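Hi all, long-time lurker, first post. I run a small reading group and we've been trying to get comfortable going from sequence to structure in the token notation. Rather than ask abstract questions, I figured I'd post a concrete chain and ask someone more experienced to write out its structure so we can walk through it together at our next meeting. Sequence below, copied exactly:
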Amino acid sequence: MNLFDLTGKVALVTGASRGLGAGIAAGMAAAGAEVAIHASEKLPTATEAAIVDNGGRARGFVADLSDRHAADALLGAVLASFGRVDILVNNAGICPRKPAADHDDEIWDRVIEVNLTSVFRLSRAVGRHLLERGEGGKIINVASLLSFQGGITVPSYAAAKGGVGQLTKSLANEWAPHRINVNAIAPGYMNTDNTAALQVDPTRSRQILERIPAGRWGEPQDVAGAAVFLASRASDYVHGHLLVVDGGWLGR
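-- Answer (accepted) --
Happy to help. Here is the structure in token form:
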């Protein structure tokens, strides 16, 4: 028995047009899942094309997750296309950098809306779907090292990711008896658009690399294996956990 086989499952991955989301979507497809790829702006995505070219089934969907009605509409579109959702990966997020004294309400509100509130709304919508079906399922939230630490010039992002960690535990407590696993991945410093400003800053980049025991920035595929584990039967007894994938950063 292959505990990591996702054949016959449908995974919805938000923010999957690039970066960590694209890596997670590719990992889900490689494990056998059909993948609904969410993008915030335009289709088709390179992620969808790559999965289809490798013989998988994928389809893209556009939704602005800062819109309070987007979660229900996105799930409705995915159900109309695939008929079901078994796995939800809440990966979409934004990370504007600005000192706290200059961090205006517009930045704060948008970050909290996209990075935390939409995670709750989409989890709520998919959770209802899974409860109605009664077959269990998997919800995976993408948290951050800043679910544990404060960061610099990203107060809204840190607050949102701290909230994602607590939301993960709260939903797990309610839904574990229904065989719905809610867990999170907390990536470390990854080579994505969100960290572009850090990577081009020679001082900050050097400081970061000096603290990572693995000696390198993480790549999207480094997170894919953790996501497949949390989406599969191998994690059936894992509930409310934040799985850190950071090259050893927090243990330093």
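A couple of things your group might point at:
The chain has one domain: 10-245.
The beta strands are 10-13, 34-39, 58-62, 87-90, 137-142, 180-187, 242-245.
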